[in-house]
Specification:
It is a single chain. The chain is of the alpha/beta class. It is built from 15 helices and 24 strands. The chain has an eleven-stranded mixed beta sheet with strand order 9-8-7-10-6-11-12-13-14-15-16, with helices on both faces. Strands 17-18-22-19-20-21 form a six-stranded mixed beta sheet, with helices on both faces. It has a five-stranded mixed beta sheet with strand order 1-5-4-3-2. A hairpin with a 2-residue loop joins strand 23 and strand 24. It is globular and about 75 Å long. Pathway: Cell wall biogenesis; peptidoglycan biosynthesis. Keywords: ATP-binding, Cell cycle, Cell division, Cell shape, Cell wall biogenesis/degradation, Cytoplasm, Ligase, Magnesium, Nucleotide-binding, Peptidoglycan synthesis. It catalyses: UDP-N-acetyl-alpha-D-muramoyl-L-alanyl-D-glutamate + meso-2,6-diaminopimelate + ATP = UDP-N-acetyl-alpha-D-muramoyl-L-alanyl-gamma-D-glutamyl-meso-2,6-diaminopimelate + ADP + phosphate + H(+).
Length: 478
């Protein structure tokens, strides 16, 4: 008991039978004999409602955040205030702090986190990687319900990484996870700030709170000199004022300066200037990927890699699923699927396409429901800036009325008197229309969902993959 709750205030509600506990779970369905059940209060589900199930499955300790009825005197009940925030420490105490044996690289920012994690993996080789697309421990792939796992899951996966002789953990660190305490039990060897643009204001309220949540990552650095910061971003400049002994990166003037020197048909050529200038070709396209590459380069420098090794590794980097992913069925126009789901994300991908386009750009996008409503019109204006024709459609409407979401997006078109658009609520039909009207040398951008293979309508998650749908209609068009 003393070990489990070391440095944690707790109250014993019931002292049950003493036992050796096997593992810790917050999902009652995963409880086995002699386990510990953590009754987490979520945004939609309260774990306290599943205590009886956990006890029936064999748990011998229940950790709660409020007073509850004692259902079995043989089970120990412990109350911990603000349990979600303290769970990481409790789990670390239980599993003997496996994360301390790993070198941990954390990436935060609105855009670019996922690609940057993949690029750093390219440098490091066998790693654990946690992020939006998946959780990976060596060769093992685990589905990712959240960008940053729940703290208990982080600790358990760190333990598994150590058992597999893995040295590095690379993780996307979301603003939600920093605010909710999911990474409170971690210290970071490297921290990267990519950028900050409007997103998640439904949770944070305003941009200042959003930034302050992101900034928390850097207070958890072991060495402040291992802060890697994009100073072309206004919030990045502000962060760099506090961590000026870190490594800045920029397209103009920083410790690392990157420039795009040329585009080929399928690649771009970069110049990275750190201690010396290095030029190389990459399959990753667009200025936003230049920034992702500089971020990964900075992480490599902080971890002690030579510039020559970094250039070699990064020049071989593969494209990331759902990020500037091209879909080909031998058609005579380009189809690109991208995760861009913010104003800045759309501007990034569309400005990159603008640089390589030979004819028209047709953009298909929508906005998610139950999320920040103020970004919808801004996304429309971003889409209109570089698109010759726009199709507004559903993304993940969730519990909102899809028509109201579409109206919010369409308002952005009306504000700027943009006429070249159509509203098609059904996402599959919207993709069909975009592919039907595409002509030789056009580019069709399908934005917003990227790697996701589902759509959330109401509270139901149904299978839906933009890439599959695009292939289906490309084959039909032949």
């Amino acid at each position: 008991m003393e070990k489990l709750f070391k440095n944690i205030e707790f109250e014993i509600l019931n002292q049950g039978e003493k036992t050796d506990y096997n593992k810790m779970e917050y999902d009652s369905r995963k409880i086995d004999e002699n386990d510990i059940f953590v009754a987490l209060e979520g945004f939609s589900i309260d774990g306290h409602n599943f205590i009886e199930t956990a006890i029936n499955n064999g748990c011998k300790m229940v950790i709660v955040s409020k007073k509850v009825e004692i259902l079995d005197e043989k089970v120990t009940y412990i109350k911990v205030n603000n349990l979600r925030k303290r769970l990481g420490i409790i789990a670390s105490n239980f599993y003997d702090w496996p994360q301390k044996k790993l070198k941990i690289i954390g990436i935060t920012g609105t855009n670019g986190k996922t690609t940057t994690t993949y690029l750093i993996e390219e440098i490091l080789g066998k790693v654990a990687r946690f992020g939006t697309i998946e959780y990976k421990i060596g060769d093992e792939i685990i589905a990712a319900p959240n960008t940053t796992p729940e703290s208990l899951d982080v600790v358990k996966m760190c333990k598994k990484a150590i058992e597999k002789n893995i040295e590095y953990l690379i993780m996307e660190v979301s603003s939600h996870s920093l605010e909710l305490g999911r990474v409170d039990m971690l210290e970071f060897d490297v921290a990267i700030f990519t950028n900050l643009t409007q997103d998640h204001l439904d949770f944070h309220g305003d941009m200042e709170n959003y930034f302050l949540a992101k900034e928390k990552l850097f207070s958890k650095l072991k060495e402040k000199s291992n802060a890697i910061i994009n100073i072309d971003d206004e919030f990045g400049k502000r962060l760099y004022n506090k961590y000026s002994n870190g490594i800045s990166y920029s397209n103009i003037n920083g410790d690392i300066v990157g420039k795009i020197t040329n585009y080929t048909n399928h690649n771009m050529i970069l110049e990275i200037d750190y201690i010396k200038k290095s030029s190389f070709e990459t399959k990753l396209m667009g200025k936003f990927n230049l920034y992702n590459i500089m971020a990964a380069f900075g992480a490599g420098i902080a971890l002690g890699f030579s510039e020559d090794v970094l250039v070699e590794k990064l020049s071989n980097a593969k494209r990331v699923p759902g990020r500037f992913e091209t879909i080909s069925e031998n058609q005579n126009f380009m189809v690109v699927v991208d995760y861009a789901h913010t104003e800045d994300g759309l501007l990034n991908i569309l400005s990159a396409l603008e640089e390589i386009k030979k004819s028209k750009i047709i953009t298909i996008f929508g906005a998610g429901g139950d999320r920040d409503k103020t970004k919808r019109a801004k996304m429309a204006k971003a889409a209109a800036k570089f698109s010759d024709f726009v199709i507004i459609t559903s993304d993940n409407p969730r519990t909102e009325n899809p028509v109201e979401i579409l109206n919010g997006v369409e308002q952005g078109m009306k504000d700027i008197d943009y006429k070249n658009y159509e509203v098609i609520e059904n996402r599959e039909l919207a993709i069909k229309k975009g592919i039907e009207i595409a002509m030789k040398n056009d580019i069709v951008l399908i934005a917003g969902k990227g790697h996701e293979d589902y759509q959330i309508i109401g509270k139901e998650k149904i299978h839906f993959d933009d890439r599959e749908i695009a292939r289906k209609f490309l084959k039909e068009k032949k």
